[in-house]
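Researcher: Quick test of sequence recovery. Tokens follow.
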């Protein structure tokens, strides 16, 4: 299935997951450095000290990226590599500036467009220690605005595509509700405070770009929001239909309603959370109104879908899902999709297409898929020779790209780009190095990179799709009937941490 010839495509990564060199080049520690070393049981004993050593090997990595035919590359800037202590009155690290300048220039000389994420979870530890990081609304939004201004001023002459934050839902819920991610807090009040800080910090960065840089740099700025699409557990039960809608409002609307519509949080959130959900002041609403039309695109990170089942009892105080039960099989025992190499992800391309329409109808913005990918079943136990023959991943990519084509051509959704997660196997946060999402195999002992078949597949399929050539080599729309237990969205529930 074809795609528009100007469709952007490439691969995505994040600084802490790939760079390594955590104590080199003037970089300060982040909350993930601390979390991995103080709570090693929560990251399978792994950490990002070396990771893929991208800091020293980016030229080699971009050689691979170029050989894969990528038009674009999404990466994040480590805040503590630019400002080791993080704050607006703290010193700027010129070594860090030089590293990212070299990285950007290396991409451009290969004809690859840089897409830069300002913050992909690695908050400077010093800000967390100084005032609580994202828990301190007044301080953090000023420091994030300062960090964004530095990045725009030092890199914006060559960078035209900016993403303020990656997956604020994951930052807030898994960092401050479940404790599964850094900084490891467990609370039923903190995540909602953090969410407001993230929304307003995003808005401050957008305002700075508009007021000080857009006229001369002529770029665009957006945000990447994760989310699953939810089908009703019982398609004939209106309560389950309402539960599916409510779950997506808790997952997506929490951030997207204020950011893209300058509206309060969804009514379902207000009804359930009450006073725990912070109010926006008149001045904050004014900021959201000023910036909502300046957000140039909607960044969608999509991996999977689930079923939502209503719950008759009142919401538990620790619930963050909208008082629904998530399941991977419906009332009839039908799976939402083919199982992958991680428990929370099943291949669900039809729901990908539905999700596009849901987002586009609600927010009306051009969409870039800023992350999409999977680990193959059993890949964590595979040898290199087995892992590079990644047919499941090829099938996953093909089916999800077909869903994009259908959404564009048949549903009228404005989708402008796609970034596969990920360029290579890397540190998958709390899942450590066992889970492999890459199209390049990483040997963590030798750091040797080996292209998988999926890398060649993406190069060829985009060549054909952008040239208007139809046809498929493989297909993957299979499901299976294995029943799995649902989760209730409490702080002790299983992790569902995306990249």
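Model:
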């Amino acid at each position: 299935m074809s795609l528009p010839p100007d469709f952007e495509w490439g691969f995505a990564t994040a600084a802490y997951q790939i760079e390594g060199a955590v104590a080199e080049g003037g970089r300060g520690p982040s909350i993930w450095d601390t979390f991995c070393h103080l709570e090693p049981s929560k990251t399978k004993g792994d950490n990002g000290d070396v990771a893929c050593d991208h800091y020293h090997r980016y030229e080699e990595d971009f050689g691979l990226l170029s050989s894969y035919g990528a038009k674009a590359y999404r990466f994040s800037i480590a805040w503590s590599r630019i400002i080791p202590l993080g704050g607006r009155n703290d010193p700027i690290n010129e070594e860090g500036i030089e590293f990212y300048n070299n990285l950007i220039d290396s991409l451009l000389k290969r004809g690859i467009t840089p897409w830069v994420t300002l913050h992909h979870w690695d908050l400077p530890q010093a800000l967390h220690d100084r005032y609580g990081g994202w828990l301190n609304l007044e301080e953090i939004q000023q420091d994030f605005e300062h960090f964004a201004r530095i990045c725009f001023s030092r890199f914006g002459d060559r960078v035209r595509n900016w993403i303020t934050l990656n997956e604020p839902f994951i930052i807030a819920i898994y960092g401050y509700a479940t404790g599964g991610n850094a900084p490891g807090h467990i609370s039923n009040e903190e995540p909602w405070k953090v969410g407001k800080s993230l929304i307003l910090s995003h808005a401050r960065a957008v305002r700075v770009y508009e007021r000080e840089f857009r006229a001369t740099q002529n770029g665009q700025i957006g945000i990447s929001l994760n989310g699953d699409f939810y089908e009703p557990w019982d398609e004939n039960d209106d309560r389950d239909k309402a539960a599916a809608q409510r779950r997506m409002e808790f997952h997506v609307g929490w951030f997207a309603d204020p950011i893209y519509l300058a509206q309060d949080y969804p009514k379902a959130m207000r009804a359930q959370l009450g006073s725990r959900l912070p109010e926006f002041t008149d001045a904050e609403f004014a900021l959201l109104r000023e910036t909502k039309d300046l957000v140039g695109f909607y960044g969608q990170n999509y991996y999977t879908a689930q079923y939502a089942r209503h719950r008759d009892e009142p919401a538990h105080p620790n619930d963050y899902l909208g008082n629904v039960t998530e399941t991977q099989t419906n009332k009839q025992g039908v799976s939402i999709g083919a199982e992958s190499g991680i428990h929370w992800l099943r291949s669900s391309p039809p729901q990908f297409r539905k999700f596009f329409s849901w987002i586009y109808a609600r927010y009306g913005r051009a969409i870039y898929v800023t992350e999409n990918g999977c680990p193959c079943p059993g890949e964590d136990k595979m040898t290199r020779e087995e892992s590079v023959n990644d047919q499941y991943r090829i099938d996953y990519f093909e089916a999800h790209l077909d869903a994009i084509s259908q959404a564009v051509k048949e549903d009228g959704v404005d989708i402008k780009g796609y970034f596969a997660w990920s360029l290579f196997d890397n540190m998958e946060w709390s899942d450590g190095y066992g889970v492999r999402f890459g199209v390049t195999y990483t040997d963590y002992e030798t750091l040797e990179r080996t292209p998988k078949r999926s890398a060649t597949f993406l190069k060829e399929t985009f060549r054909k799709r952008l040239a208007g050539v139809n046809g498929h080599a493989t297909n993957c729309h299979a499901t299976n009937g294995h029943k799995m237990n649902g989760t209730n969205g409490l702080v002790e529930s299983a992790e569902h941490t995306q990249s």
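The chain is about 40% helix and 15% strand.
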